[in-house]
UniProtKB/TrEMBL annotation, chain A:
Residues 1-23, 55-85 have a biased composition (Gly residues). InterPro entries: CTAG/Pcc1. This is EKC/KEOPS complex subunit LAGE3-like. Belongs to the CTAG/PCC1 family. Residues 1-94 are annotated as: Disordered.
From TrEMBL, chain B:
SUPFAM superfamilies: Actin-like ATPase domain. A divalent metal cation binds at H109, H113, Y130, D294. InterPro entries: ATPase_NBD (IPR043129), Gcp-like_dom (IPR000905), KAE1/TsaD (IPR017861), Kae1_archaea_euk (IPR034680), Peptidase_M22_CS (IPR017860). It is found in: Cytoplasm; Nucleus. This is N(6)-L-threonylcarbamoyladenine synthase. Transmembrane segments: none annotated. Keywords: Acyltransferase, Cytoplasm, Metal-binding, Nucleus, Transferase, tRNA processing. Belongs to the KAE1 / TsaD family. Its cofactor is a divalent metal cation. Binds 1 divalent metal cation per subunit. The gene is OSGEP. CDD domains: ASKHA_NBD_OSGEP_like_euk (cd24132). It catalyses: L-threonylcarbamoyladenylate + adenosine(37) in tRNA = N(6)-L-threonylcarbamoyladenosine(37) in tRNA + AMP + H(+).
Amino acid sequence: MQAADEGGGGAAGARGGPSGPGGPNSHSPPSVLEGRGAPVSPGGPSDQVSPGGPDSQGGPGGPRAQGGSGIPDGQGGPGGPGSPGDEGAVGPAAVGAPDVARAALESGLGGDAAPVDVGPENRQMVFTLTVPFRSPLEAEMARRALAPEAQGHQQAVQKECAVNGSVLAVRWTAEDADLLQISINSFLDQLALVVGSIQHFGLTPPLSLG
Amino acid sequence: MPAVLGFEGSANKIGVGVVRDGTVLANPRRTYVTPPGTGFLPGDTARHHRAVILDLLEEALTEAGLTSQDIDCIAYTKGPGMGAPLASVAVVARTVAQLWNKPLLGVNHCIGHIEMGRLITGATSPTVLYVSGGNTQVIAYSEHRYRIFGETIDIAVGNCLDRFARVLKISNDPSPGYNIEQMAKRGKKLVELPYTVKGMDVSFSGILSFIEDAAQRMLATGECTSEDLCFSLQETVFAMLVEITERAMAHCGSQEALIVGGVGCNMRLQEMMETMCQERGARLFATDERFCIDNGAMIAQAGWEMFQAGHRTPLSDSGITQRYRTDEVEVTWRD
């Protein structure tokens, strides 16, 4: 039994070949496949999952741990195994963020994660993320705060940021799924920090903290 | 009267400080402590810092009695240090600099220690012994640079102490070095350990391997106690540091020595340095744990000096770097 279609918000299947249990890109620990939701992430602050919505992950950290956390039933049938080969469905929700920032991200984030399969010969993987802000100014601030980060694997993972209106658009290209996942997760952590800073210290009134 | 906000998070301490005209208005700090027998890893450390940094910033402003409008410049640690923690802290600095429309300044961590040491102690132009978990350098100022006269050719002295603490499963709370110091006070026997000074430089990886191995053997046979080993390690490594500091002082004809960095809190090291200084008719300066150990105010203070001298870091150039030599910075704020 496997979820044949992995379309749906937040699914970022990074695959270069046919997917199946134990497919080439499957790194998920057993607990994900069993759909038991056993906490795998090291000390993530919370593992709330919006039912049927974008998958949240608690605890930034190693990619393998990411694969298992917080998504026991988020992929389709309740209690069913998560999509095999699914890299932990990196949904564009807050990762390890303070409650305030996470609430804002879950409500405001319209992440369109569109995997692009370029075919089995060329194992290029692409992940895109769009983050809406309250204004073009805020989006541009976020881009400048996040952009200068020197990437550890310059050749292996390319990341491009652009601002369109009030939306920050980020696009990753990589051949290595692990490095891609690390880069995405670390970006999400920094993003949560930027959003938290804007909310806490911005000169406009903060969003409601409910 | 500029007030500068400083962010520091290059290792396991995260601090936010506020300095105005030579007065430290706030300096809150948190330390990420790992269980005995372990050290701190970059990802976990960065996660710790991200979780507390915004609260710390709030705390700093409150303690200083200032609002964002009162801050004139945002300083942050550009490097050296661990990548993920440095990056997390820098992101916040860049964000608030834009939110409040204030200039940004990337500060060299080592220079932060030096400038805070100078401010707190009033030393005019000392030979500086900078010793911490991440750095071991002997530095003296000359013609607009903090010149490195001698340094470790492998690991920092604090790293040697921290890793030895792991072998003995000594607690990391409040810091492994502090606990080694307390145990050393109860040591009675001096175990001979390799002493490695190479000209102006020192090396600690050999003594670490030796003592890690010796610890297993000697504790098993009861030949010595853990306290004896702590005592012996301190005596040996500190003597090495005193030697290279003295060599630099003799070279420069210096009459002042200043110890900065977390290992500078160690009273035994201060005692040994004091003996050497007295023998030379020189004066020793040291700070207490508020300023020895990594803190935000030291970054703010170095930032204050740089700000007054006209330095600015454009956002496009505000990345962090894990390797950043002390002598790479042009010290335009001193003659």
